[in-house]
Design brief:
The chain has about 170 residues and is mainly β. Helices cover about 0% and strands about 45% of the residues.
Length: about 170
């Protein structure tokens, strides 16, 4: 545990010596030079707060943002400088949106696309445009122009030195 919260994922902000920690209660920023910390939690009365208590993964993009996978409310983009959250959701009328609002795993590839593992497959997001290419379970009908097929319930995303894409699901490793 970290500060009495079970810690789930970490991101280190080198230039400011901040460590960002996801817990089952939100996100903590702890400065390693002065030991000051700030907790970011979901507040149902504040539309600009973290959108969910249940957060699974986070990745920094090197451009001043932290991306956060939430269990129930899609993806969060957190601007480190302004401390503002942008909520990114699945839109059933937009096949280029996030494939599902239950996201668990995040990964930036060499081209700087953000890969999001969800309950219904995998989304590859262009973070500049917000548009996704979705790789989904074959039993879920989506627009074939932007969708491909993959297992559901993605929990981990990695790549190998051979540029192979490796992911794990609750049911298997591919």
């Amino acid at each position: 545990t970290f500060l009495n919260f079970p810690a789930g994922a970490f991101y280190f902000e080198e230039e400011k010596k901040n460590i960002w920690i996801l817990t089952d209660s939100g996100m903590i920023r702890r400065n390693l030079l002065n030991n000051q910390q700030k907790v970011f939690r979901h507040d149902p009365r504040d539309a600009n707060s973290l959108s969910d208590f249940s957060v699974f993964d986070l990745k920094g993009d090197g451009e001043g943002n932290i991306w956060i996978a939430t269990h129930n409310t899609g993806l969060e983009k957190f601007n480190i400088r302004t401390e503002q959250f942008t909520h990114i959701r699945h839109d059933k009328n937009n096949p280029a949106s996030l494939v599902n609002d239950s996201s668990h795993a995040l990964f930036f590839d060499r081209q700087h696309f953000l890969w999001i593992g969800t309950h219904n497959g995998l989304s590859r997001m262009d973070t500049k445009t917000g548009k996704c290419t979705n790789y989904v379970n074959r039993n879920i009908p989506l627009n074939p122009a932007v969708c491909h097929r993959i297992s559901q319930y993605l929990t981990t995303i990695l790549t190998s030195s051979l540029s192979c894409f490796i992911y794990s699901t609750i049911f298997n490793l591919s």
